Structure formats: structure tokens, C-alpha cells
């Protein structure tokens, strides 16, 4: 990529995505080139369908098989792709090296844009640089808030995990917790490590980190159970994903522990657990929004030169707490798989 043309070298004010998209739709209805008028029916306009040429976007994540969190991200991406006339090619692998290979595959396929997570940024660095050298715009989302600028990505959509962790630490203080265990389901994943580090920074009690294999639910359950039996003074289990949180509920029961459970991230079953009181609260980073914005951003950049955050600041989608005070409202959206 020609660094002189990178958006961070320009000091223009970003245009709101919705306004830009609306302007393009109006232009598509009223102009034409070479005698070929781009026509759009009233129903197409109301449905938000774009008249721009079809483009291909590769979305590449570090998702672990079976983690429902990524289903929500994918739904957001698919919604944006349907609106923008985009062919979305989704792939994932928790291995940083394999994820880099998926980026190379996208380059070889000459896609029009790439949306990628940087859970293991060092492993992704060379592949991302190759995409940029090939002239393919790359945006980041979900993981990599500390690395997206140094790797030359156009934009970033997600949560600052350290800030989110610090917020959880303060909330645990308010809840009166004294001895917490923070469960990491993928060792070395920068976003997860940052969450626990953030909790430790603001939590006034004692905190331990427990590593589990997030791809093996029975192992997760037995490992948490063993930890709670080994240290009966633990009064708080902090998990970093909804499936792990729900597994922790059973582990607490198996251990005969009175520990409470707080978590990051949501799904339908998790909101139900908050409603029942088996889980205290969750931190919502709005994964649907991350998927939607990352795909829509590539369409806007390709068709109108727009970029969010001025090329300097991430677009934050969280954190926000979901607890008994607001879970009923959030649950209606979680039931549809969009929260």
C-alpha cells in the first residue's frame, strides 16, 4: 500500500457512514454513465440495497469451533454484506499461523477487502503487510486494539479490553468480592490476557488466573471445579466468554462452592442465566455491531473513500454491563442472535 495515500496521512473529518451510504444511494438513482443508467426500484431503496458493483470481502477470525460468540459477529457481517451487495467469504482458525494462511488465501483470490482479527498480532503481521502491498484495504475488529495502527490497518472496530477489564474490577469491588479467579480459555490470546490484566489492575481483592482449553467443554468444567475445590475461599469466578460462563455455573455446583460468576460477552442462554440469577452480570462488546461495521466500512472506503475514527482512533463498541436491571430488554435481541 502506498503509505502516502493512507488515510492517517490526511486530516479530513470523517463522514458519518449512514449519511454517506444514503448519499450514494440517491446518486445511484439520478445519474448514469455511458448511457447505462443505474436504476433502483422504490422497494430496493427502502430495503437499503446498494446499486454499486458487487465486491468480495474476506472476513477472517480466530474463532474457536463451537463458540457461539462468533455466530453473532457473522450475522452482523452478513447483514452488512446483504445491504451492500457484497460477497462475504468467512473463514476462521484459532491458530495464528493458520489464520495468517487464510489471509494469504484471500490475497491470492484477489478480494476487494479484508476484515481481520489480530488476536495473535505477531503471527499476522507479515500476512497483513502482504495484503496492504497488494492494494487490498484491511480493517481490524474484535482483537488488536493495541496493534492495528502499527500494522497499517485502515480502521478498527471493537472494545478496549484493558478498559473493559478495569471496569469489571471496579464492579467486583462494589459487589464485595474478595478472592477471584479469572478463567482464560485460550492462552496467549492478547484480548483475553488484557481482560484479566485489566481486572487485576482495579480489583482490590486477590485474583488468580486459570487457563483452560476452551475447545474442550468437559475439560473446562473439570478444571474450574478442581480449582474451586482446591481453594474454597474463591468467591468470584470471572469468565471471558458466554459458553465458559455457562460451564462455570455447573462447575460451581459440582464443587459445592458459593462463588458467584461474572463474565464477558453474551448469548441467548447467558441472558437467561442473568435473569435467573445464576450469573451476576456480563460485559457486552456488541459483536453483531463489530461484524456489521467492519464489512460496511470496507464498502464505504471502496465506494466513497470514507473511514471512521480519522484513521487514528478505534471505533469502540463496548464495554457495557448487562445485569438484572436491563437484561430483559437485551434478552429480546439475544433471542434473535444479534446480541
Describe this entry's structure for a reader.
- By secondary structure, the protein is of the alpha/beta class.
- Helices cover 45% and strands 17% of the residues.
- The chain is built from twelve helices and 14 strands.
- Strand 8, helix 7 and strand 9 form a beta-alpha-beta unit.
Fold topology:
Elements: H1 17-30, E1 32-33, E2 36-37, H2 42-47, E3 55-61, H3 69-84, E4 86-92, H4 96-108, E5 113-116, H5 121-133, E6 138-141, E7 156-158, H6 161-175, E8 179-184, H7 190-202, E9 206-211, H8 217-230, E10 236-239, H9 242-255, E11 260-264, H10 268-276, E12 281-284, H11 287-304, E13 315-316, E14 320-322, H12 327-334
Parallel strand pairs: 3-4, 3-5, 5-6, 6-7, 7-13, 8-9, 8-10, 10-11, 11-12
Antiparallel strand pairs: 1-2, 12-14
Indicate the proportion of strand residues: 15-25%
Order of helices and strands: HEEHEHEHEHEEHEHEHEHEHEHEEH
Classify the oligomer.
single chain
Any idea what the shape is? Answer: elongated
Number of strand segments: 14
SSE class:
alpha/beta
The number of helical runs is: 12
Give me the Rg, rounded: 21 Å
Spatial gap, N to C terminus? 35 Å
> Within the largest sheet, what's the order of strands?
4-3-5-6-7-13
Mean of the pLDDT scores?
88
Q: Largest sheet, described in full? A: 6 strands, parallel
The unreliable regions are 1-48
Helix content: 40-55%
Amino acid at each position: 500500500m502506498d503509505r502516502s495515500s493512507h488515510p492517517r496521512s490526511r486530516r479530513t473529518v470523517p463522514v458519518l457512514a449512514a449519511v454517506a451510504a444514503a448519499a450514494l444511494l440517491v446518486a445511484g438513482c439520478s445519474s448514469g454513465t455511458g448511457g447505462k443508467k443505474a436504476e433502483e426500484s422504490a422497494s430496493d431503496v427502502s430495503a437499503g440495497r446498494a446499486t454499486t458493483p458487487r465486491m468480495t470481502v474476506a472476513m477472517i477470525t480466530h474463532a474457536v469451533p463451537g463458540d457461539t460468540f462468533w455466530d453473532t459477529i457473522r450475522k452482523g457481517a452478513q447483514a452488512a454484506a446483504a445491504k451492500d451487495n457484497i460477497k462475504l467469504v468467512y473463514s476462521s482458525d484459532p491458530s495464528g499461523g493458520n489464520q495468517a494462511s487464510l489471509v494469504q488465501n484471500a490475497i491470492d483470490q484477489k478480494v476487494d477487502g479484508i476484515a481481520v482479527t489480530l488476536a495473535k498480532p505477531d503471527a499476522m503481521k507479515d500476512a497483513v503487510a502482504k495484503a496492504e502491498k497488494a492494494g487490498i484495504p484491511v480493517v481490524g475488529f474484535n482483537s488488536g486494539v493495541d496493534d492495528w495502527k502499527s500494522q497499517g490497518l485502515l480502521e478498527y472496530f471493537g472494545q478496549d479490553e484493558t478498559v473493559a477489564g478495569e471496569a469489571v474490577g471496579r464492579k467486583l469491588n462494589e459487589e464485595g468480592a474478595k478472592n477471584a479467579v479469572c478463567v482464560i480459555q485460550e492462552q496467549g490470546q492478547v484480548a483475553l490476557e488484557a481482560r484479566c490484566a485489566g481486572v487485576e489492575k482495579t480489583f482490590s481483592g486477590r485474583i488468580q488466573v486459570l487457563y483452560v482449553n476452551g475447545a474442550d467443554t468437559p475439560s473446562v468444567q473439570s478444571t474450574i471445579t478442581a480449582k474451586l475445590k482446591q481453594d474454597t475461599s474463591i468467591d468470584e469466578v470471572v469468565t471471558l466468554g458466554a459458553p465458559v460462563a455457562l460451564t462455570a455455573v455447573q462447575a460451581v455446583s459440582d464443587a459445592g462452592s458459593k462463588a458467584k460468576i461474572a463474565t464477558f460477552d453474551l448469548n441467548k442462554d447467558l441472558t437467561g442465566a442473568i435473569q435467573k440469577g445464576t450469573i451476576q452480570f456480563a460485559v457486552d462488546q456488541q459483536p453483531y455491531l463489530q461484524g456489521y461495521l467492519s464489512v460496511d466500512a470496507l464498502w464505504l472506503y471502496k465506494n466513497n473513500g470514507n473511514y471512521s475514527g480519522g484513521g487514528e482512533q478505534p471505533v469502540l463498541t463496548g464495554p457495557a454491563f448487562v445485569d438484572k436491571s436491563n437484561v430483559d430488554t437485551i434478552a429480546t435481541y439475544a433471542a434473535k442472535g444479534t446480541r
